[in-house]
Amino acid sequence: MGKSVALGCIVLILVGVLVIGGMAAGAYNRLNAADQAVSGGWAQVENVYQRRADLIPNLVETVKGAANFEKETLTQVIQARASATQVKLDANSIKDPAAFAKFQQAQDGLGSALGRLLVSVEKYPELKANQNYRDLQAQLEGTENRIAVERGRFNDVTQAYNTLRRSFPTVIVANFAGFKERPYFKAAEGSDKPPAVKF
Amino acid sequence: MRRGGGQRPFVAGERRAAPLTFEGISLFFSSLGFVFLFVFVLFPGAASAAPPPVPPRPAKYVTDSAGVLAPDRAAALNEKLAAFERETSNQVIFWIDRRVPEGTTLEEFANRCAHEWGVGQKGKSNGVTFFLFTEDRKMRMEVGYGLEGAIPDARAHRIDTEIIGPLLKAGDVAGALDAGADAIFAAARGEPYKGTGRTAAETRRNPNAFWFFLPIFLPFVVVAFVLVFAAYARRRAGPAGASGWRSWSGGSSWSSSSSDSSSSSSDSSSDFSGGGGDSGGGGSSDSY
User: Minimal Cα distance from B142: which residue of A?
Assistant: First the structure.
């Protein structure tokens, strides 16, 4: 009688270990897949930000050609672009909320400098009529749209990852395996207020 | 004191052990499974402020919810777009409505629609979705990833403002969309996409017969192989157990599917079915 009890116990424990091990492996794989999706989304975000950075020198040259274009706005854009391209994040450092926030800040700074430049061009009708400039403006608007789309998709995959990571019992595996919570893109400071256009 | 009835009869000399019989173990697991089921159910979180839902997939290449196109012009444009897909596999569709839906922007709406409807072939994403909102006087050409090289944003903007816009301002919507389609075709031909001679909708209705019947016949084929192998092994092992094997009279003829000529819709114009493509937000928004 005692032997069958012991045997039953061992079987039970073995089966339990197998089941839990299987579940843990499944949870780890799901976490990994979600993590990779976020990295893929990040690559897309970097792509579109780089595209914007590449368009700017062209824009600066076109605008410089206009008579008496205000230097200050141009200089701001050039400086913002330089500092934005300096802040680089790789797949690992995007998990760090501080580095992530710095990156977003630099890029948003470039975005607002660009916005101010595009607004001030309104004062120069011959520049507005320039076909080159109009093409560039279309490209820039398209790139801004792409940035918005890729940031939105990045936030979606990050949300999926964070939700999975926090759900029980996946959270146990996540803490063991070192999966951390990932930061999101946030709306820029003051973006809920429309920009003031002063001439 | 132990109560009688409903319990296992107490046999002298037998220790009352914990219920580690098979019944006991199975009971344990079923209760555990119940607990697991309970715990693993993810309670849906509170819904955040979400943009309005994407309209259902359009059934045709031209969808006119604002009633600005004459039916014959709309049908002609529909056929033109279907023919373009047959020729080049590029999917170009037009969506006309009065106003941009509340709670979203033109760009967000356009991108979500192109993404959900899967305009463009899967893998190639060679789709263009053109949105026209007549009361808002806005339009957007949403270009898929695969056509971004042939139709960069600047080109899309030029098509919008130089070709489509003037005709729209003059009030000729059908002419504007026709000319716009021609311009999009001309630009898209810059990419070497080849068509299959059928649209995605037509391919879905008449799937390749081989791939359709394969999953049905594959188990039989596998069983046949197993039987053959088993019989062969038995023959090798010794004549005693061999039962000989009947020749497998297989070879069912793969009949090709008859073309599905009956269409479920009442009109005969070509249907649109998204190929599974995606758009990254390329294109141009303009007003007129």
Answer: A142
DSSP letter at B252? -
Task: List the single residue in B18, B28, B153 with the smallest CB-CB distance to A5.
Answer: B18
Query: Å from A154 to nearest chain B CA?
Result: 12
Q: Which residues of B touch A167 (CB under 8 A)?
A: 42
User: CA-CA distance, A182 to A179, in Å (whole number)?
Assistant: 9
Helix (H) or strand (E) holding B147: none
Handedness of CA B229, B230, B233, B234 (dihedral sign): negative
| B129 has a chain A CB within 8 A of its CB | no
Alpha helices in chain B (DSSP H): 22-40, 71-88, 106-117, 153-158, 165-169, 173-188, 200-205, 209-237
Q: Which of B28, B156, B281 faces A146 most closely, judged by CB atoms?
A: B281
DSSP for A68-101 reads T--HHHHHHHHHHHHHHHH----TTGGG-HHHHH
CATH superfamily membership of A2-177: LemA-like domain (1.20.1440.20)
Contact B281 A139 (CB under 8 A): no
φ, ψ dihedrals at B91, nearest 5°? -105, 120
**CB pair distance less than 8 Å for A138 and B154:** yes
Query: CA–CA separation, B2 vs A196, rounded Å?
Result: 86
Question: Any residues with CB less than 8 A from the CB of B268 and at least 6 apart, and which?
Answer: none
pTM over 0.90? The answer is no
For chain B, what are the domain ranges? 62-201+274-287
Mutual orientation of helices A131-166 and A97-120 as an angle, nearest 10°?
160
DSSP characters for A22-73? HHHHHHHHHHHHHHHHHHHHHHHHHHHHHHHHHHHHHHHHHHHTSTT--HHH
Question: Is B20 in contact with A5 (Cβ distance < 8 A)?
Answer: yes
Quote the ipTM score.
0.81
Q: Rounded to an integer, what distance in angstroms lies between the CA atom of residue A152 and that of residue A161?
A: 14
User: Chain A contacts of B29, Cβ < 8 Å?
Assistant: 15
Per-residue model confidence as pLDDT tens digits over B155-198: 999 999 999 999 999 999 999 999 999 999 999 988 888 888 88
B62-201+274-287 fold? Diaminopimelate Epimerase; Chain A, domain 1 (3.10.310)
Q: Which chain B residue's Cα is nearest to A153? A: B280
Q: What is the mean pLDDT of each run of 10 residues along chain A (199 residues)?
A: 85 94 93 94 92 90 79 88 88 85 91 89 85 89 93 94 92 89 81 56
* A47: nearest CA partner in chain B: B280
User: Are A139 and B18 inside 8 Å of each other by CB?
Assistant: no
